[in-house]
Specification:
EC number: 3.2.1.26
Function: Invertase that cleaves sucrose into glucose and fructose.
GO cellular component, one term: mitochondrion
Radius of gyration: 25 Å
Number of strands: 21
Pfam family, one: Glyco_hydro_100
Bound molecules: alpha-D-glucopyranose
InterPro entries: 6-hairpin_glycosidase_sf (IPR008928), 6hp_glycosidase-like_sf (IPR012341), Glyco_hydro_100 (IPR024746)
């Protein structure tokens, strides 16, 4: 697996020996990545690409229900090991210098010396091809009770142009639809022509190295950049799946590229992963829900059937069926939506999110999240290890990280969904959930001195709708470390809440996204940063930032992790320090007007990351040692550092990536239903008197 051919950007150089699949930009517009020929079909063999056949962009045009597989074909491949990974090369391809094209039953075929293009049409094989139906989409798999019957009005023509509702100019910046855009910054970017030149802003040597490494981590598919590998560690003898493109890991890469003016890779990533969403996926004969996004994918090169010496590239996703522990990638779809919004906000290109296929992708993800289950709470119920912490760590149930990303994705979804008869019920469901979710989190997940004191005096076994101790928490559950640790000022959202169970551990990512998305009230958001500041030595120390605090030790570690040797106390997910959390911390600090706090953390990281080889994580209480099993040249460490730097330099760009309090939601607060008593208790009412959070 490790030596198979994920294609780095450097492979494009051995002169496009990878032959490229047909991209129908000239026929169906620049987004179309397929042929649309209903008369052409070819059955798929039982191979990776059989399973991998995907229904792609015919849904863009809303024209046909045919699935397309793009194949990138190479002759007589030989592996070239480059930077620890194997690439494909071809001797014969480069000798052909004639450009020719032909249309055959198998599709369009073009040779151009170093590039050959070929598209193959397939009879749809995947179960979930309703994205490809012309205009109507039957949503009978999710939410039978149904808040939605998806109907794409007007198909492809229903693409809204970017509407500039409001534009104000002052000095060298404009405010566009409420977001500040720095014209000088864009001018500077535009004056420069190549991406490399763009990098040469005022980049320090370390930043320059980081850019070089980030670019070297780029993966191409059919000649186009589509993502970055998780780690590019030449010394790694067992890369497992670190040579894949992880959805969550790509987020900081995407932001670094976007902030640097390189939007293409992000757009490609979004569109290719969207195609993977409809992949036929099975884990031991069971098919997980439609709309699921993979945890990761890999570009593989496989022999092309019926040919001699020809190879094709295929995208091979992992929905958890190969992942260690078979964990479900619940966060992937949420990150995808967040990234899609960021793409629009930073580039100003809203046509991507308005595409019919992209709109359908958003709806599928949100439908999956909003579908009815046995749950009693508005929080998302998930299994252990379904997010960044993708191993058993006692975070099953309603972990904070998933809730904060869910809230953010719902806010993104509501912003991006085109409202029409077919989506208005979904939008209403999103609004309802946003309201209920933020109420639930603000009320029940918040921990501070006052709240602990309340829990300490809880009565238990209360049976009634107006119980004070709703979750029947036994005060004995308050851990001894917390009693001494909780500061007088500030607080945080606890890690998890379930019947008779509160996980009081501090999880950084969830708390940061509560700030970024305004899941918390302004007071709570400030409280989280206060706590990080006060507890700097515990949460940052030598390397920002602890993934969770404190570590589980002894019996607790044995029972909760199942004696996981990778998650020993103060290592990896169990209290390890992860530099990739830096960009999210930076974003949260900028939002709350405390960039100096972020700057302090960035400086700490800058002193060590490059010298240490850009590790994935650090170990020990203070984050002094490079992680026991940490990869080096971990891409999201590199990209997170670059993104943090750029956000600090361009706070107006950062402002495109976070949200203020949603006052409309406050108006329809669910707790208002509970009558006067509950109104009083509701933090939302307090928030109304505050100035945006
Ligand atoms: C580890 C991390 C996970 C990350 C992956 C690839 O499994 O826990 O969050 O996505 O590595 O870097």
């Amino acid at each position: 697996m490790s030596s198979s051919s994920s294609i780095g950007i450097s492979t494009v150089k051995p002169c496009c020996r990878i032959l490229i699949g047909y991209r129908g930009s000239s026929i169906f517009g620049s987004h179309a990545r397929s042929l649309d020929n209903p008369n052409s079909s070819k059955s798929h063999s039982k191979s990776i690409h059989n399973r991998g056949s995907y229904c792609s962009s015919s849904r863009n045009s809303g024209r046909s229900s045919h699935c397309i597989v793009q194949r990138c074909i190479a002759h007589q491949p030989s592996s070239v090991v480059h930077g620890g990974r194997a690439f494909i090369s071809s001797a014969s391809a480069s000798s052909n210098s004639i450009i020719r094209s032909r249309i055959s039953a198998a599709g369009f075929y073009a040779d151009s010396g170093i590039l050959r293009r070929r598209g193959v049409l397939l009879v749809p094989k995947v179960a979930s091809d309703y994205r490809n139906q012309s205009t109507s989409v039957d949503n009978n798999h999710v939410n039978e009770k149904g808040f939605e019957q998806i109907y794409i009005q007007g198909g492809f023509n229903n693409v809204k142009p970017l509407v500039i509702e409001e534009i104000e100019k002052s000095g060298n910046s404009v405010v566009l639809n409420g977001s500040a855009v720095d014209l000088d910054y864009f001018k500077e970017l535009n004056e420069k022509t190549t991406p490399q030149e763009k990098d040469e802003r005022v980049a320090s040597e370390i930043e320059k190295e980081a850019w070089k490494l980030l670019r070297a981590a780029t993966v191409t598919y059919c000649g186009s950049p589509v993502g970055t590998v998780a780690a590019n560690d030449p010394g790694d003898k067992q890369p497992l799946n670190y040579d894949q493109v992880f959805i969550r890991d790509f987020v900081p890469s995407a932001l670094a590229f976007l902030l640097n003016g390189d939007a293409e890779i992000v757009k490609n990533f979004l569109l290719h992963t969207l195609q993977l969403q409809s992949w036929e996926k099975t884990v031991d004969c069971y098919s997980p829900g439609q709309g699921l996004m993979p945890a990761s994918f890999k570009v593989r090169s496989v022999p092309l059937e019926g040919t001699e010496g020809e190879f094709e590239e295929v995208l091979d996703p992992d929905f958890g069926e190969s992942a260690i522990g078979r964990v479900a990638p619940v966060d992937s779809g949420l990150w995808w939506i967040i990234m899609l919004r960021a793409y629009g906000k930073i580039t100003g290109d809203y046509t991507l999110q308005e595409r019919v296929d992209v709109q359908t992708g958003i709806r599928l993800i949100l439908n999956l999240c909003l579908s009815d289950g046995f749950d009693m709470f508005p929080t998302l119920l998930v299994t252990d290890g379904s997010c960044m912490i993708d191993r058993r760590m006692g975070i099953h149930g309603h972990p904070l990280e998933i809730q904060a990303l869910f809230y953010s994705a719902l806010r993104c979804g509501r912003e991006m969904l085109t409202v029409h008869d077919g989506t208005k019920n979904l939008v209403a469901a999103i609004n309802k959930r946003l309201s209920a979710l933020s109420f639930h989190m603000r009320e029940y997940y918040w921990v501070d001195m006052k709240k602990i004191n309340e829990i300490y005096r809880y009565k238990t076994e209360e049976y009634s709708t107006d119980a004070v101790n709703k979750f029947n928490i036994y005060p004995e559950q308050i851990p001894s470390w917390l009693v001494d640790w909780i500061p007088e000022e500030g607080g945080y959202f606890m890690g998890n809440l379930q019947p008779a169970h509160m996980d009081f551990r501090f999880f950084t990512l969830g708390n940061l996204w509560s700030i970024i998305s305004s899941l918390g009230t302004r007071e709570q958001n400030e409280g989280i940063l206060d706590l990080i500041d006060t507890k700097w030595d515990d949460l940052v120390a030598h390397m920002p930032l602890k993934i969770s605090y404190p570590a589980m030790e002894g019996e607790e570690w044995r029972i909760i992790t199942g004696s996981d040797p990778k998650n020993t106390p103060w290592s990896y997910h169990n209290g390890g320090s992860w530099p990739t959390l830096l960009w999210q911390f930076t974003l949260a600090c900028i939002k709350m007007g405390r960039p100096e706090l972020a700057q302090k953390a960035v400086s700490l990281a800058e002193q060590r990351l490059a010298a240490d080889g850009w590790p994935e994580y650090y170990d020990t209480r203070g984050g002094r040692f490079i992680g026991k099993q940490s990869r080096n040249y971990q891409t999201w460490t590199i990209a997170g550092f670059l993104t943090s730097k750029m956000l600090l330099e361009n706070p107006e760009k950062a402002s495109l990536l976070f949200w203020d309090e949603d006052y409309e939601l406050l108006e329809t607060c669910v707790c208002a239903l509970g009558g006067k008593a509950s109104r009083k208790k509701c933090s939302r009412f307090a928030a109304r008197s505050q100035d945006g959070a």
